[in-house]
Structures are given as C-alpha cells and as structure tokens.
Structure of Response regulator transcription factor:
Amino acid sequence: MAKLIVADDHPLFRNALINAISNTFSTKATIETDSFESTCQALEQHPDTDLLLLDLHMPGNCGFLGLIQLRKNYPSLPIVVISASEELDVVKRVISFGASAYIPKSANPAQISEALKEVLAGELWVPASMQKALQEQASQDEDLDLAARVAQLTNQQYKVLYYLTEGWLNKQIAYDLNISEATVKAHITAIFRKLGCTNRTQVVIQAQRLTLEPPVNKALSGHEQD
C-alpha cells in the first residue's frame, strides 16, 4: 500500500483520478493539493510519501520548471506526470527531466493502475502507443542543459523566476514574497548567472523553452530595468 499526493488544480478531475486509483490500486493515504506551493508544503509535511502525481498546468508550476525543481529537491521520490497533452515532445521532455511516468488524462483506470505499479517497482512507464516513437527520438541536449541549470536555482530563486515569466515587476515580487526589492534584484542577478543570461528578456525566453504555453507578450515588454 502506498501513500500518494495527487496534485491537480481541478477538483473534479482530482476526485475522478482518486476514484480511478482506489478502484484498482491499494493506497494507505491520499493527500490532495491544488498548486505548486501547496504541493511543496505537502511534501514537507509528509516525508514518507511514496508517489507524487503531478499536473503540469497547476498554478505556480510553470510547465516543466516545477517538475525540475521537485526532481532536485526530492531526488528519490517517484513523480508521475498526468497531463491532457499527448504531444510526443512533451512526453519526451517529461521523462528527460526526471519523471518516472507520463499518464495522459485520457487513460483508463487499468492503465493508471499499471503505470503506478510499474513506477513503484522502479520502472519507467509511458503509454504503449508512444514507446517506440520515444525510443526513436534523440534527446534534446540543449533543453537538458537548461534543465540542469534551472535545477541549480534555490527555492526562492525559482519563485522569482516564475514571477518573471508572468511579467511581474520587482516591487510586485518583493511584496508577494515579503522581501525587499534589493533582495529581489539579488535573486535576479543570481538567476542571470545560473541561466547564462544578461537581461530579463533572455531569462523569460529561456524559461519559455520549459513551459507548455505560447509566449506571453506581457512577459517580454514593459519591464523595469534591473
């Protein structure tokens, strides 16, 4: 029996997923979270978690960035990504960035149960229809290098990076994180160094390589100078 965290911001899907799991898979406890921050808090409060089921689109997750951060902070925790996207490139990068499985939201309960059992046995799992195509595609070294650099960010620096991708000003970030603007600028400087960038626009462009959504115009214009 396993202790699970189910991280998804849609209550209806979260409940449906938990019901699907309970019908075919033995669990001793299931914790629900609806944002990246609450997921991190749950992991701190439940260090004995056996498995994390993660939605890439949760608030604060910012596509693959959250997965990379979780993989760094919890290197031995199996992470199963569940997403509505079934694009092969997304699946490939999820596995490359450290997930143990990729389950499309269209999966049936039997597939979900199979995936969870495989992961807990130490195996990787993706839908059978995708396995051959994934094996044929070469890994994206450039994205893997960027992922490694993102993994060097501290938790606070990751939060600042997320806000930068959302187009927030330094004073807005400082207020939300309850820190000074000088501290925000220090974090941004560290982010520049670790990601090999010289300005905010470059940081946002780099980060958008690891997100799922098209570039947001506000994140590329109207910024204050650092």
